[in-house]
Write a structure and sequence with these properties.
By secondary structure, the protein is α/β, with parallel strands linked by helices. It contains eleven helices and ten strands. Helix 1 links the parallel strand 2 and strand 3. Helix 1 packs parallel to helix 3. The longest helix is centred in the middle third of the chain and has 24 residues, at 80-103. Pathway: Lipid metabolism; fatty acid beta-oxidation. InterPro entries: ClpP/crotonase-like_dom_sf, Enoyl-CoA_hydra/iso. It is an enzyme of class 5 (isomerase).
């Protein structure tokens, strides 16, 4: 599941797990619900100058959708269609997580201290900034390798955040396992670091730096939504005008 801690103006959202499989942080309905609940708490407590840092335990930031969970639904019902329906349900539920992050009234930073694959990479890229460890992490859009097309909002996010056509091709049409250094060059990651501890420390520094600006949350969220019109249109987020309160 996940935990939420507040350190002054910083909110620390941590993906947690009780065992090796759980620490892959595969996105199933329970984890998606837990993340959305934590983000709702962050939003309700937000003040000008808040910032969010998302990190994880173990060797994975997130290994994408929980296909084992979907397969179990199919086995239980005796129908392959039930497994497909459950996967599609998770795709739809996860849309809400991306929407929550894109509309969150504060800067957001993902500290990627382990592998981020498929929907797990989309989770990281839904943040404004990404720090990543070069010692044990790759970014991997695995959909091509497993024979699955990308959900529309995945594609829109990648188009919005990965600027070069050759980089997008490498990421999604070659299913490359992208290292931290490569991800920095592609503009997906802001900084690469030697250890998980250094990744988290860099994310905290960035959060503290941004927090000092004391930006208004509504204006920040409004500008972010306007910056990614295709993605936010698919997510159902509206571009709202925010004016200075002192006018």
């Amino acid at each position: 599941m996940c935990t939420l801690e507040r350190r002054g103006q910083l909110f620390i959202l941590k993906l947690t797990g009780v065992d090796k499989i759980d620490q892959e942080h595969r996105l199933n309905p329970s984890l998606i619900s837990s993340i959305r609940s934590a983000l709702a708490d962050v939003k309700s407590q937000a003040v000008d100058g808040s910032a969010l840092i998302t990190l994880s335990e173990g060797k994975f930031f997130s290994n994408g959708f929980d296909l084992r969970h979907a397969q179990a639904k199919g086995v239980k019902s005796g129908s392959a269609d039930a497994a497909k329906d459950e996967l599609l349900r998770m795709v739809d539920l996860f849309r809400g997580v991306v929407a929550d992050l894109m509309a969150l009234p504060m800067p957001t930073i993902a500290a990627v201290t382990g592998h981020a694959a498929a929907a797990g990479l989309i989770l990281a890229m839904s943040h404004d900034y990404v720090t990543m460890t070069s010692s044990r992490s790759v970014l991997y859009m695995s959909e091509l390798d497993i024979g699955m097309t990308l959900p529309d909002y995945f594609t829109a996010l990648i188009r919005g955040k990965v600027g070069g056509s050759s980089d997008r091709r490498r990421l999604v049409l070659q299913a490359a396992k992208v290292t931290a250094e490569e991800a920095v060059a592609m503009g997906i990651v802001d900084s690469a670091h030697d250890s998980p501890e250094a990744v988290v420390a860099a994310a905290v520094r960035k959060g503290e730096e941004l927090s000092k600006r004391k930006w208004g949350g509504k204006a920040y969220a409004g500008i972010r939504v306007a910056l990614y019109p295709e993605l936010c249109g698919l997510l159902g987020l509206k571009d709202e005008t925010v004016l200075p309160s002192k006018l």
